[in-house]
Structure formats: C-alpha cells, structure tokens
Amino acid sequence: MTEHTTQKQRSRGRRRPKHVPQRTCVACREKEAKRQFVRIVRTPEGTVEIDLTGKKNGRGAYLCTRRSCWDKAASGSVLERALKVTLDQQIRDQLHRYADHHFRDE
Ligand SMILES: [Zn+2]
Predict the structure, then answer these.
(1) Rounded to the nearest whole angstrom, what is the distance from the C-alpha of residue 11 to the centroid of ligand 1?
(2) Domain ranges of the chain
(3) Which of 1, 22, 51, 61 might form a disulfide with 56, Cβ 3.0–4.6 angstroms?
C-alpha cells in the first residue's frame, strides 16, 4: 500500500542528473562510457600507482584499455601533465608491464 508514495516522490526530480563523472583517456582524449578505463593515481605521498579499485586517494587520471595509450603514457609525458608529477622509471616500467599483461596489440 505504501509503494505509491515512493513513486510519487521520485517523479519530483526532473533536473538533469548531477555530477556524472566524465572519464577521458589522457592519451587519446576519448570519452567513451562503454570503454573501460583504468585509473592512475598520484597518491598524497607523491607516488604514482595503477589504481585498480578506482578509489584511492589522490589526483587521478584515466587511461583507456588501448595498448597504444598505455605505451604513450608510459613513454611520454601525458600522464605527467595530467597528474602534475614526474614519472620515474619504476612506474614507467610498471605501466609497460601492465599493458603487456592486459592489453595485447589490437
Ligand atoms: Zn586512450
């Protein structure tokens, strides 16, 4: 019997949904809802990590699951610009390795 009450209240909100996070790949700049993104985070400690949970604290940047984007991120400066941090060789290797394991050449 009370089910109708909830229905009524729902129809109130007619405005556009607030704060839908738009993810953009920092390498190819594509926004694609369907595409999977992997979050790269600069932690408050200043290290850069691949954030597989997507919930780590810090400044985040997203990479899509294209191999070429990871190669670009690992060797170039797109991630450094997005995260405002200098990537050391260790994280670059890590990105390369991650790409090696997860994304075969398309
Ligand atoms: Zn991309």
Answers:
(1) 38
(2) 23-102
(3) 51
